Amino acid sequence: MDFERINEKLSILADAAKYDVSCSSSGSKRENKNKGLGNSSGMGICHSYTEDGRCVSLLKILLTNHCIFDCAYCVTRKSNDIKRAAFKVQEVVDLTINFYRRNYIEGLFLSSGIFKNADYTMERLIAVAKKLREEENFNGYIHLKSIPGASDELMREAGLYADRLSVNIEIPTDKGLKLLAPEKNRKDFIKPMEKVKNEIIQYKNEKKLLKKVPIYAPAGQSTQMIVGASGESDAEIMYTSAYFYKSFNLKRVYYSGYVPISYDTRLPSIGSAVPLLRENRLYQTDWLLRFYGFDVRELLNKDFPNLEADIDPKLSWALRNLDQFPIDINRADMRMLLRVPGFGTKSVHKIMQARRYRKLNWENLKSIGASLNRAKYFITCNSRIFEGKDRTPAQLKGLILNESNSKFRKELSTQLNLFDVPNNLSA
Amino acid sequence: MKTTLIYDGSFEGFLSSVFHVYEYNLDDVSIIKKENALVSLFGTEKVIDSDSHRAKRVWNGLSKKISTSGKRKLYKAFLSEILGIEDSMLHYIRYALSSSENVERDFSNRHILEIEKTVKKVNREKHRMDAFVRFRLTTDGIYFATIAPDFNVLPLNATHFKKRYADQNWLIYDLKRKYGIYYDLKNVKTVQLEISEAINTQKEAPNFFTLEEIQFQKLWGNYFKNSNIASRKNMRLHIKHIPKRYWKYLTEKNF
Questions:
Q1: Residue A398 — left, alpha, or beta (φ > 0 → left; ψ -120 to 50 → alpha)?
Q2: Number of structural domains chain A divides into
């Protein structure tokens, strides 16, 4: 191996791949058989964390950063004057195996710029995965990018070797896509996603009838959207997200705050801040949709197109729907418990367990470990004290903000100075 | 009068001490490791010998009252090596044996809660070792790693590494407790070695490791550097995820 050259390529192609946020390595079921290498049957492992606080679980690289497209938001766009490089299939295989053997990583996340055409690129990605599985007997985690426009046959093959497949839709709205990536077509993104979805359904059906069906993308599909590149509203992002969860059974949608990388006037200029707080609020909303039984229309709608910056989306919803509170912690159903600001799924489970033995009071709730800072204004329990009293939403919000200490305080104070209307983040 | 039972530090020794407690019907009693024992002015001391037969009787007896996972929790709490954990374990065992129902989820009991919390800490450390072990390929073809975990979690890590690295020889050595686990392509064995301090220094590395090994470390260090997004720097979060005491094992943090 020519380590000098590989090192150079690795620098370029890791740097270009880092804007893809997904690094999950869980949810697969590929056990080590016949004394092979690797096992990805259980939970994911974060082997390290970069200084930006993100998990390093997979070797995340591009096969090449040569690309025929010129999408404005992308570092590897054709017109960008950067160093280009390409790995050979065998080089990626060697890197993956040697990193894995040293316990650096859980597996490989392979993406690529599009060279020649979609199918040609997809074939190369599949070649890497196939080699790892068949020649190296590798059972670690493999995440492949589905290249927009790739043929159904190739997507079928990809799922046989990969644990997860993903297509990044990147720009949430059609008008944004037209503006920033005019050569790309929404249909091309959807085609491979649709195929993978159908294959997964088919796999599950066959599995019910037959004992031995080759496993197909056991960790499912995911996608990613860039936040803050095309002037979209939070509602537009989350409605798109909800649509993709529903129509394609996605495991995850990732939101990536746009990191300015271009002097293109269609985009936020270099040096402007990454919208970290907004990204955080979107993830909170995403969790509310997936684990807390909220419908996206409750959280974002015509009257309320953007999330509030200074409070989390659940609290924001509760303040707009005070008529549904307070709820009695000893009687409320799970659906309502999950809607109490400050309660997570774990607290809710603990409360439901504990209240079978006794009627819970404030003391009990505290010892269970439920967070009451926000919750106490929205619940009653086995006690005469009700903290919410008859305060208005604005009073409650003021009280809660006074008592809390947000890690985003610094950003919040500048943002609140810049804009008079707190419900406007998408500048 | 308070009795202190001193045992050899093994799990078997601890269980033998529990047997002794029941045999002599002791009430005011404390169980402590030999290395932690202090000469006390008041009370009596008794050195307990490990006895596998007696240990087994206690261990099997527990099965009638608590589940396998409850027993495993006791073992994990033991591995925490926290001073005084033996007494919480003894309370746990006594409570379990004297109750007609399974009490392992009765968290209103102080000792059960204490064991539960300790197990959580031990599990977290075990998971960290699954993540932070960094193998280096030695000149004799063994993937070698050193660790010094807060708790004695190595016995818990064995299965994970055995399943994962079924086709390579590996050795993980606990520098703090001076023993390691070695996998010889068939079984995992406990080993004790003389390990030179120099093995973890950059200068001496070429004497122990292959040239290729050092190249791969460089590649990994380089990858780590390049996958960071500088404009999102967040050291507080970084350190929360990898506390500084673990940095010494991490290849990527030593470049």
A1: alpha
A2: 2
> How far does B17 lie from chain A, in Å, by closest CA?
33
- Rounded Cα gap, residues A232 and B134, in angstroms: 43
Per-residue pLDDT tens for A354-368? 888 788 899 889 888
Cβ pair A52:B232 closer than 8 A: yes
Residue in this structure with the two tokens 């960008």, named with its chain if needed: A80
Tens-place pLDDT, residues A188-215: 889 999 999 999 999 999 989 988 888 8
Q: Which domain holds residue B53?
A: 3-122
In this structure, the answer to whether residues B20 and B54 fall within a common structural domain is yes
Q: Which residue of A has its CA nearest to B253?
A: A48
Pair of tokens at residue B143: 């993937």
Residue A305 lies in a domain: no
Give this prediction's pTM: 0.90
Nearest by CB: B224 against A38, A46, A50:
A50
Are B42 and B151 within one domain? no
> ipTM of the predicted structure?
0.92
Taking phi over 0 as left and psi of -120 to 50 as alpha, with beta for the rest, A27 belongs to left
Give A130-183 pLDDT, tens digit per residue.
Answer: 999 999 999 999 999 999 999 999 999 999 999 999 999 889 988 888 889 888
Q: Which of A14, A102, A274 sits opposite B227 (nearest CB)?
A: A14
Verify whether the Cβ–Cβ distance A45 to B130 is below 8 Å.
yes
Residue B36 is assigned to a structural domain of this protein: yes
Note whether B9 and B115 are same-domain residues.
yes
Domain total in chain B: 2
Q: Determine which helix (DSSP H) or strand (DSSP E) holds B19, and give its type and residue range.
A: helix B11-23
* pLDDT score of A426: 42
Q: Please report the residues numbered 188 through 217 in chain B whose beta carbons come closer than 8 angstroms to any beta carbon of chain A.
A: 212, 215-216
Q: Which residue type is seen at A36?
A: G
